[in-house]
Amino acid sequence: MEFLSEYGIFLAKAVTLVVAVLVVVGGIAALLRRGGDPLDSRGRLDIRHLNEDYDGVTEALKAAILSKKAFKQFQKERKTREKHRDKAERRRVYVLNFHGDIRAAAVASLREEVTAVLTVAQAEDEVVLRLESAGGLVHSYGLAAAQLLRIRDRQIKLTVTVDKVAASGGYMMACVADHIVAAPFAVLGSIGVIAQLPNFNRLLKKHDVDYEQFMAGEFKRTVTVFGENTDQGRRKFQEEIEDAHALFKDFVKLHRPAVDLERVATGEHWYGTRALECQLVDELRTSDDYLLDASANADLYEVVYTSKKPWLTRLLAHGGEALGRF
User: Fold this and answer.
1) What domain count does the chain have?
2) Which residue among 109, 133, 140, 168 is the active-site one?
3) Which of 68, 79, 206, 220 is catalytic?
4) Which domain holds residue 154?
């Protein structure tokens, strides 16, 4: 029994070592197969021709519902249309996506996508941003909106479509567009600023815990989580919130001058139909319908920038995939 026990421990260690080696080797092999350099930390730009996707869906449905004779005729006509389309000079529509969180982390990809598009876009082209965000940090969404302003500054048409939500910082981005398209029940607006934090000072005092804070500059810190907040600090913090709100309103007014700020800048949100009445949007429509119509006379290209994870993270991930195939 002692021999079997020791042998079992030895076998477990051997299996663990083999598995570890397989993970590493499998990860490296997966990276090499995908053309990845383990030390390459740069991202990747993927381009998808959406017209081809639409054509593929149409052909699949036609094949299912038409007779063989009718389908052959459809294919013949499609090839003729494609030849004419290839010869004709058509405008291009570049489709970007932004799914925002509280930190607007997607701005890292957005800036790369905008830069890529601006290297090739012409005056007759269009950029369509499919935007979904409930807002977040002021400075993060300010940067995201500034990235979209780069498109406007180049005199290229910018359309923002909202299927679900573009509120607060999300609307700060949307209002930059030449044209805003929203689904009937999409949530828009929330032109306001909010900040909230708990204060544990009384709890600390109850347990005889001192909290000390040292500052150089009267308003380096206005309110705090652990210290005792003063009326002066609260007033200063409220002034900062109101200043941020004023800047937000000025930004919206600059880009959508027809909007009645007294009505819409209360922090409230509106559904698409009501947002149209408030002139927060220009058209009620889904992004799918807008892009499908655009494909009739334009070439649509979806541009997606994917930043690469640290090589060790990718190595372990690919190693896990490779191990699963053994």
Assistant:
1) 2
2) 168
3) 220
4) 44-51+90-190+268-306
| This prediction's pTM | 0.79
Residue 278: give its domain's CATH number: 3.90.226.10
Task: Examine residue 18 and state whether it is found in any structural domain, yes or no.
Answer: yes
317 lies in the same domain as 273: no
* Catalytic-residue membership of 69: no
Cα torsion angle, 272, 275, 281, 282, sign: positive
pLDDT tens digits, the chain, 326 residues: what are they?
565 566 667 666 776 776 666 766 676 666 566 654 444 457 899 999 999 999 999 999 999 999 989 988 988 888 887 777 666 678 999 999 999 999 999 999 999 999 999 999 999 999 999 999 999 999 999 999 999 999 999 999 999 999 999 999 999 999 999 999 999 999 999 999 999 999 999 999 999 999 988 889 988 889 999 999 999 999 999 999 999 999 999 999 999 999 999 999 999 999 999 999 999 999 999 999 999 999 999 999 999 999 876 555 555 555 555 445 54
In this structure, are 136 and 173 located in the same domain?
A: yes
**Chain centre distance of CA 230:** 39
**Is 168 a residue of the active site?**
yes
Q: How far is CA 175 from CA 153, 189, 241, 289, in A?
A: 14, 10, 21, 21
> By the 8 A CB rule, do 316 and 215 touch?
no
